[in-house]
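Design job #97: recover the sequence.
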């Protein structure tokens, strides 16, 4: 059993700080072994967010700066707020950019993962209220510990999602 699989077996050791210490490959393995939330409403409320590992950590100073900035208290993304119904839901990103703002709404649903085809919780930004770049974002999450959700963020490129980074949201 891999170290990540053992960590996953003991979900009590997982929190945002533990996820921040993991590599992209470790987060990918953890995500692929996680389960989808039981219901849409499991994520209801204001979840704290964390940008984790970039797909190409050795892509130069920009990737390094983004990882460091993403872990700092100055990073403007605070997290996501979710509201669920029985079959679907909605959400919005909370940011601190020129004051506190709610930007980039999304719809939520259960669907197949673009990474592995398994059930996942999808965040769909394709609504007309978002700018074109934001509409191309594909996020999905799975539960890795009680109240802790991990997922890949991807951009649609020529009709196919390409993973850019892993992120997490937490109700812990």
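Job complete. Output follows.
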């Amino acid at each position: 059993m891999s170290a990540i699989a053992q960590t996953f077996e003991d979900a009590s050791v997982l929190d945002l700080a533990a996820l921040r210490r993991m590599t992209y490959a470790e987060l990918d393995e953890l995500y692929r072994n996680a389960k989808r939330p039981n219901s849409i409403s499991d994520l209801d409320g204001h979840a704290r967010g964390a940008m984790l590992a970039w797909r190409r950590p050795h892509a130069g100073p920009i990737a390094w700066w983004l990882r460091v900035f993403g872990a700092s208290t100055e990073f403007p993304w605070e997290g996501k707020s979710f509201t669920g119904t029985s079959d679907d839901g909605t959400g919005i990103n909370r940011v601190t950019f020129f004051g506190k703002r709610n930007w980039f709404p999304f719809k939520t649903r259960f669907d197949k993962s673009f990474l592995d085809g398994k059930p996942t919780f999808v965040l769909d930004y394709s609504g007309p209220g978002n700018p074109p770049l934001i509409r191309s974002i594909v996020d999905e999450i799975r539960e890795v510990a009680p109240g802790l959700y991990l997922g890949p963020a991807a951009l649609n490129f020529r009709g196919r999602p390409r993973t850019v980074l892993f992120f997490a949201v937490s109700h812990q």
